[in-house]
Design brief:
heterodimer, A: mainly beta, six-stranded mixed beta sheet, B: mainly beta, seven-stranded mixed beta sheet, four-stranded antiparallel beta sheet, 11 strands
Chain lengths: 115, 113
């Protein structure tokens, strides 16, 4: 079964600093990978996705992620944090074939941005 | 217009009651989902329907029964509510069951007392 591990349930950065949220996947075959963001009391919004095309994926709000097969990783980065980036971030995995469209989520990382 | 909407947003009820949560999407998608997010924010899929047909049914108590009257609606009915059912329930939709991008509703916070 596929799974994702998000290292660090809480990450705190200063405004303007680099944001790095870690995600590692476990799968015998490279899956599709996603990052979602959840603002307080809201639903999830797709930030970006990797679907076997370019390994460096750019998303909304200045976020990007790089798929590294050798490291089984899909870390999320943003060069300069903004206060509005404070939210919960979820990494998710989906099998390329089969399994319907079942997303398996990581446990989430709470990003705090400080002045 | 809200793409995926859920009602109610908040639901407080007592143990043993039966309640329903409604979901509607106006995106023209064929596939809809129910997810449960627990108090630790862990998200897990419960059900998925494609064009009114059940395609994903995770290990969920029989007290939970999804119903899809048409492909734009997926309701969740819960019988004999228990304390452990307290969670946020999210509805989502995607173009079809092979298309990967899912759009989420705002969630329904269910509190069972």
């Amino acid at each position: 079964a596929q799974s994702v591990t998000q290292l660090g349930s809480h990450v705190s950065v200063s405004e303007g600093a680099l944001v790095l949220l870690r995600c590692n996947y476990s799968s015998s075959v490279p899956p599709y990978l996603f990052w979602y963001v959840q603002y307080p009391n809201q639903g999830l919004q797709l930030l970006l996705k990797y679907t076997s095309a370019a390994t460096l994926v750019k998303g909304i709000n200045g976020f990007e992620a790089e798929f590294k097969k050798s490291e089984t990783s899909f870390h999320l980065t943003k060069p300069s944090a903004h206060m509005s980036d404070a939210a919960e971030y979820f990494c998710a995995v989906k099998p390329v074939t089969g399994g319907g469209n079942k997303l398996t989520f990581g446990t989430g990382t709470q990003l705090k941005v400080e002045l | 217009d809200t793409a995926v909407s859920q009602t109610p947003k908040y639901l407080v009820t007592q143990m043993g009651n039966d309640k329903s949560i409604k979901c509607e999407q106006n995106l023209g998608h064929d596939t809809m989902y129910w997810y449960k997010q627990d108090s630790k924010k862990f998200l897990k899929i419960m059900f998925s329907y494609n064009n009114k047909e059940l395609i994903i049914n995770e290990t969920v108590p029989n007290r939970f029964s999804p119903k899809s009257p048409d492909k734009a609606h997926l309701n969740l009915h819960i019988n004999s509510l228990e304390l452990g059912d307290s969670a946020v329930y999210f509805c989502a939709s995607s173009q079809d069951d092979s298309y990967y991008e899912q759009y989420f509703g705002p969630g329904t916070r269910l509190t069972v007392t």
